[in-house]
Amino acid sequence: MPRPLWTGAVSFGLVSIPIKVVSATEDRSVHFHQVHLEDMGRVRTRKVCSIDDEVVPQEEIGKGYEVTKDEVVPVTDEELDEMPLPTAKAIEIVAFVDADSIDPIRISDSYFLAIDGQVAAKPYTLLRKALERSDKVAVAKFAWHNRERLGLLRVRKDTIVLHAMRWPDEIRSPASLKPKDVDLDEEEIERAVQLTDTMALDDISGFRDKYRDALEELIEAKAEGTELPEPAEGKERETGKVVDLMAALNASVKAARESRGEHGDQDATVHTMQPRKKIPATKKAATARKTTTKTTAGKHTAKKTTAKKAAAGKKRSAS
Prior knowledge:
Layout: E1 6-12, E2 15-23, E3 35-36, E4 41-42, E5 63-68, E6 71-75, H1 77-81, E7 90-97, E8 107-115, H2 121-134, E9 137-143, E10 148-156, E11 159-165, H3 186-198, H4 210-224, H5 245-259, H6 281-318
Parallel strand pairs: 1-7
Antiparallel strand pairs: 1-2, 2-8, 3-4, 5-6, 7-9, 8-11, 9-10, 10-11
Helix pairs in contact: 3-5
C-alpha cells in the first residue's frame, strides 16, 4: 500500500476512530515527457514572473486571489490552516442514507480508511458492522486541501471506503441537453430491454485497457529497435445515417447472443432508411387533377354502360 495521504479520525457520534487515508486507485496510464525532437532533450516548464520576466524559485511562489484585474490579494498557507473548520482533522459523519439515493455523478476520488493503531480496531469494526447491518452508507464532512468536502463512507471487502463527493451546486443541469420528444413503439422498447438482458454481466473485472497494451507494445518495439506491430483493423462505424431502429436492435441482440455461443434471430439485419422524395407542389397539383379527371371519366362511363344495359333490357321485354 502507498503511504497515507491524510491522518485524522472518523467521528461517529461520540465515538472517535483514528484512521489513515490511503488512495484506493492508481493511475496506470502511459505518460510521456515533452522532448526536443532534434536531440531528445527534456523540455522543462519555467515559472516566470509576468512583471520582471525573471524565473521565480519555488520558495518565492505563493497563493493570490484576483479581486479585480489590477488587484490581487495574497493568502498564505498559515492563514488557510488557521481557518475555523470543525472538520480540520476529522471525518465527521452527519447522516446515514440509502445507497440508491446518491447520484453516482457526485462521486469523485476514492480512498481506503485504515486504522491508525490497534486501539482503533474495535470502533472501526463497530462502524463497519453498523454500515453492513443497516444496509446504509454514511455521509460525512471533512477538510482537505484547504477546503471542506463532502464524503461518502461504505464497506468494501471488510474495509471502509471514503468516496469524495461533489457539492450539489457543483453539478451542472443537463436540462438543455435533453432531446426533443420522439415516438417509440412498445415493441422497440421491449427489444431494447431484451438487448440489455442479453448483454448483462455479473462481473466486469475481466475488461482490459487494450489501448494501453498496444501502446506499451509500440514503446517496447521502438526501444528494442524491432519492427513495429501491425496496426489493428478497426471496425468503422458509419455515422449520420438514419437506420431502421428495430432492425438494428434485432441485429444487436443476435450479435450479443452469438458472442455468448447462443443462436437465434438468424434473419436479423440492419437496413438503411431511404428518405422519402419530396414531390413539388406543381406536380402534386397535376397529379391531383389527373386523378380527378380519371375519376369523373370513370363515373360518366359507368352511367353510359348502365343506360345501355337498361335499353337492351326494355327491347328484350317488348319482343
